[in-house]
Amino acid sequence: MAVAAAVHGNYLPAKFRRFTRTTLSQLTSLPPPPPLFISTNPNDVNPTHLKNLYSICNHSSHRFPKLNSNGKVEPVDIDKLKKALVHSYVVVSVFTRSEFVPEYESGRVFGSCGDWIGKVVPVTPGNGELVGFGRAVSDCGLTAAIYDVMVIPSLRRRGIGRKIVQRILRILVNRDIYDIASLCSDQQKPFFRACGFGDDILASTTMMYTRSASTHAEGEQMVKSAGRKLLLVPSLSGNLKI
């Protein structure tokens, strides 16, 4: 079940670093991240490379993804991915050199002098591999929501995901947007709590609409099957009051 974690106005932690003692002790034991380049320029993201990142992370853009026999989600539609990038309010991408990315079978190489060149040449989107990503959508004035935060498996638990969220939050808050939400699963809640999110102070719940499901009436509601989920939605034949 997806739950909405949110940050509201005065409840935003200072510098987004309000961690519990347990969380701090865990962070200090994590291995440091490799050399990184963090970009907020959407033009630095190659849609094909981003689609590959979705696949490596087994991340789906669908709320109810279809899984194959190996538990892999269906590939993201690259045309829709391009549109999502264009219409995202904030895009954060993370790059590192190919020698730190075992998931990529064919990465960029520096030749026989790669060891010492890797230490002196800074990482850029041009010489690095895309290893992390996150984005936010917004009405540009009042609210925003964070989506698609992902890091390749071999570089997780090194603070990269937290850097992505913190960069998104910094940009949104600097633009005077404080009502920031993230739709996340129960497994993702500890991560977003460590980034400063908490339960919605308005005690709201998240309801999802799906148009691609068969329906049948049940009293005044309709039961919609969406993948392995069942959603209850109001009957459209009744009077709607807003």
Task: Kindly describe this structure.
This is N-acetyltransferase domain-containing protein. Residues 68-227 form the N-acetyltransferase domain. The structure is a single chain. With 242 residues, the chain is α+β, with helices and mostly antiparallel strands. The protein folds into two domains: 3-206, 3-Layer(aba) Sandwich (Aminopeptidase), CATH 3.40.630.30; 208-242. It contains six helices and ten strands, in the order βαβααβαββαβαββββ. The strands form two sheets. The protein has a seven-stranded mixed sheet with strand order 2-3-4-5-6-1-7. A three-stranded antiparallel sheet has the order 8-9-10, with no helix packed on it. It starts with a strand and ends in an 8-residue tail after the last strand. 23% of the residues are buried.
Compose a concise summary of this entry.
The chain has 242 residues and is an alpha+beta fold. The protein contains six helices and ten strands.
Helix content: 10-25%
Percent strand equals 15-25%
- So how many helices? 6
Indicate the CATH topology of the largest domain: Aminopeptidase
Spatial separation of the terminal alpha carbons: 26 Å
| Low-pLDDT segments, ≥5 res | 15-25, 106-114
Name given to the CATH architecture of the largest domain: 3-Layer(aba) Sandwich
Tell me, rounded to a whole number, the average pLDDT. Answer: 78
Radius of gyration: 20 Å
Overall strand count: 10
Domain tally: 2
Query: Order of strands side by side in the largest beta sheet?
Result: 2-3-4-5-6-1-7
Structural class per helix/strand content?
alpha+beta
